[in-house]
Amino acid sequence: MDMISETDFDDLVGAYVLDACDADERSAVEEYARAHPDAAREIERLRSAAVWLAASDAVAPPPRALRGLVDRARDARPVGVAGAWESYRSETDRLHTFLTGFDRRFVDSETCNGLTVTELVLHLAAAERAIANELDQPTIVMFDDAYLREITAAELVECAGVDFDGAVARWWSAVETVRERARGAHHRVGGYRINDALMIRAFETWTHVDDLRAVSGLEESTPTPAVLRAMVEFSVRSTPLALASTGRARDHGAALLHLTGAIDGEWTIPLVVDDGGAARDGNVVTIATLTIDTVDWCKRFAARRDDGVAHFGAGDETVVRDLVLAAPAFAGL
Q1: Which is nearest to 16 in space by CA: 28, 2, 3, 4?
Q2: Are 321 and 312 in contact (CB under 8 A)?
Q3: Considering the entire predicted model, what is its pTM?
Q4: End-of-domain residue from the set 9, 33, 53
């Protein structure tokens, strides 16, 4: 059996640590982990989380209920953290459903980023098509905000006569191409690992779902718990680089991010980034704690909350402030 891809590993690792894989899947995950140290560390991290969850107020179910649970478990894996491809699929499905029923009275309304609704859909179409092209044949050195604005401007010129329904069809066609090509690709995409690129697209899609909901007078939405947790994990992994890119990294220490609300948990964020741009874990001392609502944290990461977002800090107040200020460092259009 050929070695599984990074996307396959992300899809299987949650089930692996919960002993929900079959023998072939288990062997495939272990082979991948032996060849990829980052994957082995991810397994250990998830195992630690699983142990913690298993120790939380467990009770013995009645025998009849237990039998039913075991029967259902044979047909469904436990849900923990969604994989990157699953997160992308989930958020693009949510946006597609919303756009299908979108109130056409608002298609010319301006969204928070200065684009009309139709233009925002075309912006998404340009981004997905660029990712689709990269998955086929990589050419972009870095898929950053400047590049995104450039291809969006070109898309708006090219599609000046396209109406809302045409924009939606154009976007969805690009999404389907990304889904198809991402399954078999192994190279980096616009400077990112494929899974990170898909998580960025999932995150942006959620952000724009709520931009469109705001124009329609609707409340914000929330991804499924598994996808939301995946977005939290991605934001935490990105924060040390966000600190570094904004000149807020430290030469020592770590911060504790305590999230409440939709997800309640704690994550350690190293404040030190090495010369290669990677966060340094090691045995670091926690010098600050940031407590914030999960959705508020993700929205701050996506630049949809300002730096006055409700939060509570403990320890080094400058570290807490820097975390809040740096969070949206990589937010795009």
Answers
A1: 28
A2: no
A3: 0.76
A4: 53
